[in-house]
Amino acid sequence: MLRLRFEWAYPDTTDITEMYNHRLVSRGWKDLIEGTPSLWSNISSNHPTPFIRDCLKWSGDHPLIIRVSHFDLWDTQPIETLKLHLQLLRPHSHRWKQLDFSVKSVSDAQHSPFSDFLESPAPKLRSLHVHIPLISNSPPPTLNLAGDLAQSLKSLRLTNVFIPWSSGLLVGLEEFSLDVTATPPAEEMVNIFSRSPFLKRFGLSYREGDTHGTPVLTNSSNHLRSSHITASWLKEVRLDFDDPQVAGHILSHVSMPNCTDIAMKVDLRSSDTFHVVEDGLTQFLPRLETVLRGGERIKLQVYEYSDFRYQWEGTPEEGDFKLFLDLSRDSLDVVIDYIGRVADACGTELELDVYVSDILALNPLGQRREIKRIEVPPYCYRSDETEPFPDRLGRFRVDAQNGITWPFPGLQQLDLYHSDYTLHSVFGMLNQRYLPSSYTQSLEKSGIPVSVPPKLDIWVKDPVLEDDIVLVKAIQKHWGVGYLNGVGAETEELESIGSE
For the packed helices 186-195 and 244-253, what is the interaxial angle rounded to 10 degrees? Predict the structure, then answer.
């Protein structure tokens, strides 16, 4: 009974310090704990050397879960100690059931011990996750992982390393992901779906290198020309790339009829390349139509790191089908136009809900009538803002064709609750954006068209000072406001406030 309780309490832990302490309770506990192989089958390279030796001894013939990690920036373990631990673990590779290997920030010359360890024969391996440092200006190394003997492998995740395209490890997988600074051969990526017909999760991330261009992972000598494949078991796809050709090839050659979760992160070199992404997504349009037809407003997140990025959550989180696009570079108009075509196909009017983390990212959006809601979160970056956003909303423009117009002409909801814009600026914006109806009618009688924006539902900070309470009441009663913080505004126009 005590043995079962230990196995239940420590099913998958690498923290064996507490287990060592339990051995000191009594001689009976010591014999029982040391005689239970499963308690010692989860080994970390960060364990002290004596602990690792004891684990290997007391685990007997039990299958092993091995976790190897080393990060120079904060890892206190010397690299030589790590090499020693790899030497201790390697003779037991025939017992490995799971290997998680993540070593970063070591010199190129230190790769050899890792390669030898990773190529150790491991016929019982079912899960292999490898992350090795990137070798400067070189394509990812191709290693004969697990001695190419892990015929029962189900999960294979690789970063900065790959295996021969003819490897038996690519057969019968349920999960596969590859993250490389190189361009993988599109045909070999498609062939993985053929060799692993029960694949459930697929991830591919490939990016350009920093120098000397982008290396290319070459095809195998006996590769087959890509044919159309149906991946009936596939449920989840993750694609991250800056050249859409490979991803487009995969999506156009692999049918994914039961895939319910698609995420794409794209650095578009130019807007002309977006058609490749769009063509690849065509197979998912029928399901998008089913989910979006009559559904909620389409959401677009706009934020900025080094380049502006745009996120589109194509379907609600609680839906049965999810499409997530993360796009960057000067592609926003192209993206919005694409979302509009999706909305048209669904019989839904395009209404964008914009969530912005850099206020400058709104600059190219001002004339988009499709934007119905804008939310400015508490951490919104504003240091380069030359004109407060509320002031911009109130600044009109005049042209001969459209007369007087305002930015974001279709805006219906404005959430400034977590921002630090003052109530004075919000009230001033309302007085500039919403002219009194008598004045508007007078302008139109004079032949000057006025494109009056729809009423705004606004969220602002709760009042603190006495003056704030006055402003909040004035904002709530303004004829340009529908709801303030979820409370309905007065229906009468206060012409006196507008005229003053």
Answer: 30
Write out the two tokens for 175.
């999960």
**What is d(CA 56, CA 35) in angstroms, rounded to the nearest whole number?**
12
Angstrom distances, CA of residue 430 to CA of 42, 390, 426, 450, 482: 63, 9, 6, 16, 12
**114: which 2 tokens?**
């890792």
Q: How far apart are CA 94 and CA 452, in angstroms?
A: 74
The whole-number pLDDT of residue 384 equals 64
Q: Which of 219, 223, 209 is nearest to 139 (CA)?
A: 209
Give the separation between CA 77 and CA 71, rounded to whole angstroms: 9
Contacts of residue 72, defined as CB under 8 A and 6 or more positions apart, other chains included, come to 104, 105, 106
Strands (E), 39-109: 42-44, 64-71, 96-104
- 336-368 burial, b if ≥16 CB within 10 A, otherwise e? bebbbebbeebebebbbbbbbbbbbbbeebbeb
Tens digits of residue pLDDT in 347-398: 777 788 887 777 777 777 888 888 899 988 776 666 666 788 899 999 999 9
Listed in order, strand segments (DSSP E) in 357-401 are 371-375, 397-399
Which positions of the chain have pLDDT values less than 70? Answer: 1-26, 28, 71-77, 105-111, 135-138, 208-226, 268-272, 291-311, 313-319, 329-331, 379-385, 488-500
